[in-house]
Amino acid sequence: MSFNSIEFAIFLPIVFLIYWYAFKKYTRLQNIFLLGVSYLFYGWWDWRFLSLIILTTASTYLTAIATNKSNKKLWTSLNIIINIGILIYFKYFNFFSENFKNVLSFFGMTADWVTLDILLPVGISFYTFQAIGYSIDVYRNKIKPTKDYIAFSTFIAFFPQLVAGPIESARNLLPQISNTRQWNYDDAVLGLRQILWGLVKKLAMADSCAIIVDHIFSAPEYYASGFGASTLILGGILFSIQIYGDFSGYSDIAIGSARLFGIRLMNNFNYPYFSRNVKEFWQRWHISLMKWFHEYIYISLGGNRKGKYRTLINISIVFLLSGLWHGASWTFVIWGLWGAITMCSHLIFSKYKSEKNNISTLKNIPSILIVFTLTTIGFIIFRSPSIEFAYNYFELIFTSGNLFTIPTGLTPLWIIVLVLIVEWFSQKRSFALEKMPSNVIIRFAIYWILLGVILWTCESQSDSFIYFRF
Asked: Is 215 a catalytic residue?
């Protein structure tokens, strides 16, 4: 079930009403109910996916309990192997098989290597990382293993953040699920506002960009010869906007939906395209994933405690793994490598000192544009179906004419400017609609205008969220 579907528009209010009116005084019944609707939500795509999330849940729960009784390292390692094994099988088996076959072919050997027709379970990378994070936290004594299987299962499967994050720490989410939750009107209002803003970014902005991006990336040679290199640059810029609106929009809907049930999820985006340097960008983009890699990979490798060169190596490893996490393709690996190059270059050559706040001003526009340009170069690689395609795309940019003509018949782009302006003036807030005018008439007029924007700009059938592939 997708957030941008009629089914979810019916599902969410029904779950909300039953949750608060039928089980308001019974935390355990609330958790049982949340677990059931979370499995319904996830199984809506394909009921067979449920077996994997149940296996991940049981393995992680039991091995964490076992660490209190015997060898902690053994049980933690076993659970990590099980979960990584599942992830590799479903997401990377064919990738590794095909590349191993290519290596053999390079050395003049042949092999009838096996590839499988495997359906990638939605969100497997997200809930797998959440489960592994819990195991490592238990191993490091940062959290005690819970004996409440229902609460733990709900922590893994909680439907707002199940298929595309944020990737939550058990230290934050699990206590909220285990403890009594109270109805709070203000929280519910903020949750609905954040859902509305997420829908604006996803349906109005991201999907409007997707129409143009799909046209340009489907035939870059045609657009380069007919409209000029600037159109290819436009395609890269709009994809950067699309992936931000798509993923941050999903995160807003997830965080807002969780808030309706008295649960606070971490902020996953902090206006990343207003970043003044590359380091700041990665502190603001997909925060939960970068925090996961920092805590469980970067720190484990030694962090910055073993000298400058080792720090740069550790950063590079994190970015390469992050690229591979996004998908079983060399383009994702190269995208991760580009992130490593830009990040390490910043640390080596930049004299910029981080400011105390994340509020950008007009004087920061030049540095913001530089960071956005570097990011867009990476996202062109990210969007490309192959390394050869990415190479040809960049080659066309530099070899085609500079005539700037936007193809006609495409969705207007004014919504992009509107969203970015609103977010520019909202940098002190966790999301754009967090604070609204006190006047009821003005406030509801804004709500209806935003709903109108969504209905007017979105297509009859909107795109799936990009990050469902991960």
From this structure: no
